[in-house]
Amino acid sequence: MKEKTIGSYQLEICSNSVASAIQAEKGGATRIEFCQNLENGGTTPSFGQLKLVRELVHIGIHVLIRPRGGDFLYTEEEMLEMIADIELCKELGMDGVVLGVLNADGTVDKVNTKRLVDAARPMHVTFHRAFDRVKDPFGALEDIIALGIDRILTSGLRNSALSGAPLLKQLIEQAAGRIVIMPGAGVDASNITTILAETGAIAIHSSAKESQSSKMRFSQDQVKGMDEAQWMSSKEKVHQMVDLLKSL
């Protein structure tokens, strides 16, 4: 699928459910990073979610390949699980996958990342925010480029892309068009244009999320939990960012 743009920019929305992905598309997003369990940083969606989102959403869908929360140092069993999930995404006609593997010393695990990239092709491949846990971002950038990966999602090794803007600018300059550096983390309508201006990025990532309380009328007060608020992509928040991008 040829990815749409908003002027010169791409706006990727991280959506944690089929309903969120539909809202993101309605808001004008150019593509979806599709995951579940956003409260824990995101994990790979279920088969049912993947099948349904491909049927109902008509912009690019890039699936997060992450078997669990926590770090990005994976066992062989977890590697095999990720390869199986990638193969399923390919069978279902997804546009891309979002992945990344690190070594214990904070370097990119080139051997295992290549296994995932090889399994993914010809789909598009993004190296996810495992990048923000590396020891040397400039060396990691070259390793990821050498692996033939298409894009890196990163906050510039900070808790937000706005805070990481100086490093993001350096990474984009070093990449020199060889790979897309996509800022993400804490991006919203209040800062999206500033981040783009300060970094020179052409693609940006946001969850555009809002909290939705449980709609249950009955509450079992003797049991704790299982009634928590849920995150949902907001069509209105996406649309606000789209309007700002159109004005650039």
UniProtKB/TrEMBL annotation:
Q: Which GO terms describe its molecular function?
A: copper ion binding
GO CC annotation terms, alphabetical: cytoplasm
| Record's protein name | PF03932 family protein CutC
What SUPFAM superfamilies does its record include?
A: CutC-like
Keyword Cytoplasm tagged: yes
Q: What subcellular locations does the record give?
A: Cytoplasm
State which gene encodes it. Answer: cutC
The superkingdom of the source organism is Bacteria
- Keyword annotations for this protein? Cytoplasm
User: Which HAMAP family does the record associate with it?
Assistant: CutC
Q: Which PANTHER family match?
A: COPPER HOMEOSTASIS PROTEIN CUTC (PTHR12598), COPPER HOMEOSTASIS PROTEIN CUTC HOMOLOG (PTHR12598:SF0)
